[in-house]
Structure formats: structure tokens, C-alpha cells
Amino acid sequence: MKKLTKQEKHEQCMREIRFTLLVVAICCAWHIITAFALNGTGLYFLGMPAWFSVSVFGTIVIALIGVRILLSKVFVNFEYDEEEEGND
User: pLDDT tens digits, residue range 29-44?
Assistant: First the structure.
């Protein structure tokens, strides 16, 4: 577990929030763009309209990949508890 100062903890939390919101925005954009782009094409995939299949299953795959990247590259394991150093 990493030891961080209060300022470093705040900066790390903000970094994690920004990157998480980026992954959410990418998932949302994929979901909306593919749903509108494939709507009305008459294509079917897995017995469902292509817009639904590609939109929903693609969003799940993108979310899983995004979480994997966030966990390996962005998130840091540290304690957020307010510890008073010097007081035992």
C-alpha cells in the first residue's frame, strides 16, 4: 500500500475520477452512436436487431476493457483514512 500525503491523495482521487468518467463517456458514446447508426438497417444478430446487439454487447465489452485498463494503469492502492501522524 502506498503512503501518500493529503494533497497527493486528493490528486490521485481526482485523477481516478477523471479517467473513470472518460471510460463512462466512451461507453455512452458507443451505445448511442451504434444504436442510431444501425437502427432501421433491418440487420439481425443473435436473433435481435443489430442496433441492440452491437450497442449493448459492445458497451459491455468496452466497459470491461476500460475497467481492466483503469485498474492496471490509473488506480493506486492507498488508505484514505485521516491519520494523525505523530499521535500514537
Answer: 999 999 999 998 899 9
Structure pTM?
Answer: 0.82
One DSSP character per residue, 8-58 reads HHHHHHHHHHHHHHHHHHHHHHHHHHHHHHHTTS--EETTEEHHHHHHHHH
Is the dihedral angle over the CA atoms 61, 64, 68, 71 positive or is it negative?
positive
Q: Torsion over CA of 58, 60, 63 and 69, rounded to 10 degrees?
A: -90
Bridge partners, residue 78, by sequence:
2
| Residue 2 and residue 77 in contact, taking contact as beta carbons nearer than 8 Å | yes
C-alpha angle 34-37-40 in degrees, rounded to nearest 5: 120
